[in-house]
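Q: Could you fold this chain for me?
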Amino acid sequence: MLNPKQFLSSFSHALRGVKTLIKTEQSFRLQIIVGLVALVFIMVFPLTAFDRVVILLLIALVLALEMINSIFERLVDTFKPRIHPVVGEIKDIMAATVLLASVFSAVIGLIIFIPHFLSLLGL
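A: Sure. Below is the predicted structure, expressed as structure tokens.
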């Protein structure tokens, strides 16, 4: 059975994690802003349900990967590069993971939104 107090406590911990990321991670703040802009576009343009779902999933993917990247950075920072040279590689690979998802999300977003912008311009 669901324990309401335990659920609220878990939710509170999750929100505290989001606050920590917003406060400490510039990339996360930027990705939230870009995600909010995409949400505005979702509301403004007459997109199909499929396009809306794709955009929402891409926003969630990039934000979740940035969260995982932040977790890995904090974990491997506890080991310090002087202990093992792979620590820097782990951080670089995680950053590349977020970058890859962000670039492909931007390309997909442009594919979806450009026709609507062109339509606004009468082109």
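A (continued): The CA atoms of residues 81 and 89 lie 10 Å apart.
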